[in-house]
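Entry details:
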Amino acid sequence: MALEGLNDKVPPTEAAQQTKISSSQLEGAKVLPADDTLDNPCLVAKYLTRAGATVDVAGDGEEAVTMAQAGDYDVVLMDIQMPKLDGYEATAKLRNEGYERPIVTLTAYAMREEKGAVSPGWMQRLPHQAC
């Protein structure tokens, strides 16, 4: 796995604090951003491919589930609010079907009530920070 050692067996709160990743850690990584808008995954893909990662994009929750199960992704970057299946439903479906790879919440929706809606270990959550 290209991201081996990154967030391995680290509690979600500590994993969220590990925000600096070198481009060498991304070389050869397979990443699946799942987002129903084009802007976010395009921006993410631009930076990740520059760092050597391979990026495929899922446009909704159903597509994210199908692609994650069929692909050998190192990480799924899951938007919370998407059509067909939202990020919560897509993640629950993947976990219920035995998907064990990291799924990280990547969303612009950072309301306080959303922070408590994710149980530890279900989805890793990175803190919302301005770029």
Q: What stands out?
A: The chain has six helices and five strands. The longest strand covers residues 30-34. Confidence is low (pLDDT under 50) at residues 1-11, 119-131. Helices lie at 12-17, 23-26, 39-50, 61-70, 87-96, 112-115.
